[in-house]
Amino acid sequence: MAKKDQGYWYLASYPKSGNTWCRVFIPELKRLSVRQEEREELNLNRDVETGAIASSRHWLNDQLGINTCDLSYAELDPLRGLAGQTANLFAEGERFHKVHDAFRSPDSKGRPIVCTNGCKGVVYILRHPEDVAVSLSHFFSWDLPRCVNFLMDPSASLLGGEGHGGHQVRQFMGRWDRHVKSWVDQTELPSLVIRYEDMLDDGQNTFLKLAKFLELTSDEELVNQAIANTSIDRLKKLEDEVGGFDEKPDGCERFFRSGKSGEGAEKLSIEQRRRLYKGLEDVMNRFSYTGSSDE
C-alpha cells in the first residue's frame, strides 16, 4: 500500500480532451522505469487503471460506507469530497485519478466534489472547444448541434438522468469555460495546466512537465521513449491488438480516432463556431484558442 506521504493526484478535464492519453502515458513511463527483464508490453485494457475515476459508484460506496443509489444528487454531492480522506487507501499504482466533474457542483454546497486531503495536485488537460465538440460527436454518436449545445449548457452533465444506478454517479460539468475556470482558478490544490495541442506539437516539454509534476521522473530520455510508445498512431494499434478498448461506449467505432487538432474549424459551421467563440471567448483567449467571431 502507498505510504501516507506519497499522496495522490487528479487528472481533470472536460470529456474528450486528452485525459486518457495522459492515463496511458503514466503507466508506460512507469513501465520503462523498471529493469528491462521485468517489463511487460503495454496493454490498454490492463494498464490504464491509474486509479478510480472520482465518479466511480463502487469507489464512493466503499469509501463513504453508503449505498449511493439511495441518495439524490443534492444529498450525495456534499459527501463526495469525503471519499479518500485517508491517503494510505491509495495503492501504489493507483494514485492518479481521472475526473470529469467540475471542481464544485451546484449541489455540493460550495465544497469541492473531490477529496483534497493529502492530494498533491491536479493536472488540468485543456483542449480547443471546437475540437472537443467534434470528438464528443464521434464518441457519443451525437450530432454536432447537440455537441455545441452541450458545451454551452450551464447544466451539462454526464449520467444526469433521474435514475441513480449504474457504475458511475452523475458528473456535473456545466459550460466548457466555467468547467475550465472551476479547476484552473481554484486555490485549494496545486495545479498544472496542459493543452492537448501542446501534447501534440510540443510533447517533449509538455510531457516532461507532467512527469515532474506527478513526481514520476525528470529523465528526458525515459519521457521521450514513453511519448513515442504512446503516440496516437501507436494507441490506435494497441486498441486493435486488444480487440477494442474497454472504455469505448457502445456505438462508438473506436476510442482512439484521429487525435488531430483543428477538426472543429473544418467540420463545424461558421454559425456554430461563432456561437462557441461568442459564449466562450474569455477563456478561449486566455489559453490562446482562436475562433470565428462576428467580425
Strand order of the largest sheet: 2-1-3-6
Taken as a percent bin, the fraction of beta residues is 5-15%
User: Structural class from helices and strands?
Assistant: alpha/beta
- Please estimate the helix content: 40-55%
Could you say how many structural domains there are in total? 1
Mean pLDDT: 85
Integer-rounded radius of gyration = 19 Å
Low-confidence stretches: none
Shape summary: globular
SSE pattern: EHHHHEEHHEEHEHHHHHH
Distance between the termini: 57 Å
Strand segment count: 6
Under the CATH scheme, the architecture is 3-Layer(aba) Sandwich
Indicate the CATH topology: Rossmann fold
List the total number of helices.
13
CATH class: Alpha Beta
SSE diagram, text form:
Blueprint: E1 8-13, H1 19-33, H2 44-47, H3 57-64, H4 73-80, E2 96-99, E3 119-126, H5 129-140, H6 144-152, E4 157-158, E5 171-172, H7 176-184, E6 191-195, H8 196-201, H9 203-213, H10 220-229, H11 232-241, H12 263-267, H13 270-286
Parallel strand pairs: 1-2, 1-3, 3-6
Antiparallel strand pairs: 4-5
Annotation keywords:
single chain, 295 residues, alpha/beta, Rossmann fold, 4-stranded parallel β-sheet, two-stranded antiparallel ribbon, 13 helices
Q: Could you characterize what this model shows?
A:
The chain is of the alpha/beta class. The protein has one domain (4-128, 157-256): 3-Layer(aba) Sandwich (Rossmann fold), CATH 3.40.50. Helix content is 42%, strand content 9%. It has 13 helices and six strands. The strands form two sheets. It has a four-stranded parallel beta sheet, sandwiched between helices. Helix 1 (19-33) packs across helix 10 (220-229) and helix 5 (129-140) packs across helix 6. The longest helix has 17 residues, at 270-286. It is globular and about 50 Å long.
